[in-house]
Design goal:
Mean pLDDT: 80
Number of helices: 6
Helix content: 10-25%
Largest sheet: 9 strands, mixed
Number of strands: 17
Radius of gyration: 26 Å
Order of helices and strands: EEEEHEEEEEEHHEEHEEHEEEH
Length: 378
């Protein structure tokens, strides 16, 4: 189980995976030619793009591989508070800065002195770092499953399904370079015990003909129940619109493996800017909504009234995960757009241009149908 104070020491320059930037990953020299190895999605191995050398780090049967452990939430939050007060210092300080163009966070560790923003491509220099944060270590990650070529196919299908897109845009397609990025997420587990009191409403009808009316007969209802929430997922980054991130779901969290720096080879990763306690508040709001929905189901009837609902939360745990996306920025008509693809399922979300002419013609068509409809009705 990963604890807050159990960060690995920074690798030395003699290490095969010498420390670079978590936003850029670590370099892993090829044992054959010395070039940097990259994570090959199709083979799920490290492979040299020059000589073809491969290195398998999922050796043999992976079914017995160590599972990604849960971390005690309340204990970790207490330790974070102590750190902010200048107490325990067993969490390695990592320098984090915001891109001056798009405000995304870029993380620096080790010897890296410059990189580029994972989202807008702008250069970022280490000398511009203005603050440091003590980061909660990553527990696990889901490796890339969708190769770049398949991501292009998903993008083309998405493009064909766009309504009101300019004809020349759909004909030429989207041109740009895909960038593989790991996005940060929190997951939360909780055991809940709820007590409720309310009323159950049953509909009935009285009268006949035009005097027939629907009425509701109310009766008291109360009860209690337990429910376990497993892996409530909360995005820990704020750069991408929340609606995009939610529509990229679901993620195959069952394929999550313990964090390995090798899996970052050739890809970027973003550090979190939604703090652990902030993420839990969002997760708790989701749990509360779900508990309220279940309470109404348990009350039953045609309609329900909840007068009181009290829930206790216990056995609180969390994980810090990295999940993969393909990101692509492109320009059309003098404007910049961005598209992201879930690199495990191929789900596409993003920005696109609209054709003013097509929209105007569609509105005119609808208005014509309405005029014709009312004309036929006299």
């Amino acid at each position: 189980m990963s604890q807050l104070g159990e960060l690995p020491e920074a690798a030395t320059t003699a290490d095969a995976g010498q420390a670079v930037d978590q936003a850029q990953g670590r370099t892993f020299p090829c044992e054959s030619c010395g070039a940097d190895l990259e994570f090959h999605i199709g083979q799920q191995t490290l492979r040299c793009p020059f000589c073809g050398f491969t290195k398998d780090f999922f050796s043999g049967d992976t079914s017995g591989e160590e599972a990604v452990g849960e971390n005690p939430l309340e204990e970790t939050l207490r330790r974070l508070v102590e750190l902010r007060r200048g107490g325990d210092s067993d969490v390695a300080a990592t320098q984090v800065m915001e891109c001056s163009y798009c405000r995304a966070k870029v993380e620096f560790t080790g010897t890296l002195t410059s990189t580029r923003c994972a989202f807008c491509g702008s250069p970022v220099q280490r000398e511009n770092v203005h603050r440091s944060e003590r980061l909660v270590p990553v527990d696990g990650m889901v490796p890339f499953k969708v190769e770049r070529r398949r991501a292009q196919q998903h993008l083309r299908r998405w493009l064909k399904g766009l309504w009101f897109a300019p004809n020349d845009f759909k004909k030429k397609g989207i041109r740009g370079e895909f960038e593989g990025i790991y996005l940060p997420f929190w997951t939360y587990d909780a055991m809940t015990y709820s007590r409720y009191r309310g009323e159950r409403g049953k509909h009935y009808y009285s009268g006949s003909g035009k005097n027939r009316k629907r009425r509701t007969r109310w009766s008291p209802a109360s009860g209690q129940f337990q429910r376990f929430f497993d892996d409530v997922l909360v995005a820990a980054g704020t750069h991408l619109p929340r609606g995009w991130v939610e529509k990229l779901e679901p993620w195959p969290l069952a394929d999550c493996v313990p964090f390995r720096e090798e899996l970052l080879a050739g890809y970027l990763s973003q550090s979190y800017d939604v703090q652990l306690d902030q993420g839990f508040q969002e997760a708790k709001e989701r749990m509360d909504r779900e508990l309220r929905r279940e309470t109404k189901q348990r009350i039953g009837g045609d309609v329900q009234r909840i007068h009181q609902l009290d829930s206790d939360f216990s056995a609180l745990t969390y994980k810090h995960l990295l999940l993969p996306v393909w990101s692509l920025g492109y320009r059309y008509g003098g404007k910049s757009y961005q598209v992201v693809i879930n690199a495990t399922t191929g789900e596409v979300q993003g920005q696109r241009p609209y054709s003013a002419i097509k929209i105007a013609l569609f509105v005119l068509f609808i208005l014509t149908l309405l005029v014709l409809f009312f004309w036929l009705r006299g």
